[in-house]
Amino acid sequence: MSRTAVATIVKINGIDVYYEWYPSRDGVRTIVLLHGFLSSAFSFRKLVPLLNRDYNVLTVDLPPFGKSGKSAGYEYSYKNIAATVIALLGELNIENPILAGHSMGGQFVLNMITLQPSLTDKIILFCSSGYLKPPGRLLSFGSRLPLFHLAVKRWLVRSGGVKENLKLVVHDQSMIDEEMLRGYMQPFLSKQMFHGIGRLIRDREGDLPPEALQKIDTPCLLIWGEYDQVVPVAVGKRLQGDLKNSQLIILKNTGHLVPEERPEEVYKHMKNFLEG
């Protein structure tokens, strides 16, 4: 974190929201970065210093991830979390932000635009999730059982833990070092994290359907990794077709975690899009 960064937790819509604010200079616009599933603002640590040369940057830990709240009384739907981020922007007096989301964070960006179409004039999606259905009836029922959080924890352990999941999202696995492992492991040291993930599974709606996407006319940049195993390039191409004012850039020899793997290239494409 830079010396000028401000890290704060505020209560928005009944939940604690952790954010990091990186001011650049007066009069410049603010880029809001939203992370994906099982992640946090940590995933943008390489991209933030580059963007901060030209823009204010706001990173947010989306509930229930990172250092944000995991309250049992909060609704973890896309729509409600999107509304919470919009409320945070209002609390911080940030007008006309540039919204950027990675993976599941892309769905939050799209939901924010659907809720408030005039919120921004530019959006950026990094390997955004798309076209996923809501959880099935059995999973939805199971998520309401008292010990479901233990099943979530067991699933993560059986999948190989944080290291094996990083191997899935990063194409060049040699870049997985101790700093990266510690950063992505940290949120899971909280027992409440597994309760929060269980509630997210319960509350999550399906991704926005094509008819909703086709109503979005905000200019959109799609940045994808050529070897994304989590959200394949085919999803990016489909989103490009449904988002009528969008362009797609595919990064060679890159996996799902594009802000980690290609920060310089991502910054360059973002700046060209925003200033072009």
From TrEMBL:
<feature type="domain" description="AB hydrolase-1">
    <location>
        <begin position="30"/>
        <end position="263"/>
    </location>
</feature>
<dbReference type="GO" id="GO:0016787">
    <property type="term" value="F:hydrolase activity"/>
</dbReference>
<dbReference type="InterPro" id="IPR000073">
    <property type="entry name" value="AB_hydrolase_1"/>
</dbReference>
<dbReference type="InterPro" id="IPR000639">
    <property type="entry name" value="Epox_hydrolase-like"/>
</dbReference>
<dbReference type="Pfam" id="PF00561">
    <property type="entry name" value="Abhydrolase_1"/>
</dbReference>
<protein>
    <submittedName>
        <fullName>Alpha/beta hydrolase</fullName>
    </submittedName>
</protein>
<dbReference type="InterPro" id="IPR029058">
    <property type="entry name" value="AB_hydrolase_fold"/>
</dbReference>
<keyword id="KW-0378">Hydrolase</keyword>
